[in-house]
Design a protein that fits this description.
Helices cover 46% and strands 11% of the residues. The chain folds into three domains: 62 residues, no CATH class; 83 residues, DNA polymerase, domain 1 (Orthogonal Bundle); 206 residues, Intergrase catalytic core (hpI Integrase, Chain A). Belongs to the 'phage' integrase family. This is Tyrosine recombinase XerC.
Amino acid sequence: MKYQKTKYRNIYTYETTKGKFYHVRRSYYINGDKKEATKSRLKTVAEARSVLAEIERKIENNEFTYNKNLTVDQYWNIYSENRLNTGRWSPDTEINKYSIYNTHFKKWLGNTKMKNISRIDYENSLNKLLSQFSRNTVKQTHSVLNAMLNDAVRNKFLDDNPIDGIYIGQSDVEISQKRISLEEFKIWDRCAEDLLDSYYYTFVRLTYLGLRKSEDYGIKTASCVRLENGRYRIKLDDSRTKGRPDGGRMKTKGSERYLVADEKTSRLLDYAIPKSHAIAKKYGRILGPDDYLFLSDYKNCQKKLLGKPLPTSRINTMFKQISKECGIYVTPHMMRHFFATQGQIAGVPIEHMAAALGHSTSYMTQKYTHIEDEVASSVTDSFMRVIN
């Protein structure tokens, strides 16, 4: 194809059997490498000048640096990795987000370019989920992909989010109950203590104090320090999940904290800690300070797991067994909600409760002072007064 220069820089003409057309060619550099932006089959010089102006704008704003042809799967990998690296997702959050993405979006939209997502098709498909799930669940599902696409827009990988602000209808599916009453808790706790041996009841009971289940798994032998009053101060600075069974960092520095266990939990820890050392010795191990505290030695445990840290599915199995026995459905995360609710009822200051849950750093720093022990103890004591 032979191009003829015009009086306008970077605009050319060329002839075809269908007549005369305009062609735009503009060079630019990315990291020292020469690139070209081109556009052909433009019918008028005015159209060509408009296209050139848009190319100039994109060059000025570094928009050609970004690949706007990424698929949903490709950007999900970029997005999720960034969320983990910057600490915006905790290990538990990572599992939740990946579960939603893999279940609802990967097969459906994974190979679709983000810019080619049809708003109408997406809205219709998402609303079909209302026959299976509550409106809150569908909204949560939508929020995962919507947040990713908003991130792509902010980072200039996408011009606009095609699904932002879509309509989500109503659902006849009832919202699952995520809270338990004080009376239900007491029944469930009595059942747990009767059903489990003292070692694994200790593991379950620690969730009553606001721990994420990943934090319960992440307690190490050196995490538990016995204070002069016989109670244990437990440092929470590690977590284990299905995706990270060998442990890893907490969500943020604000998630790293410690708690002071109540008297009953402390008495149970007096038993559980030496029990862990005995289990380890039984299977040819010696526990060091950085080894995880709670080990596998339960009935029907797989041989390859014996004496090793509890598998990250075990706490869900325990909760299901207890719930089935007493007829009250409870999950580890519901215990976290229960701790927060009862703490507020007991009058614990909101900033203290937020810190106890690992949501802020308004108290409980890395330095273990007497004042901080008192604050941590007061949160636990206030909670225990209500439930007892």
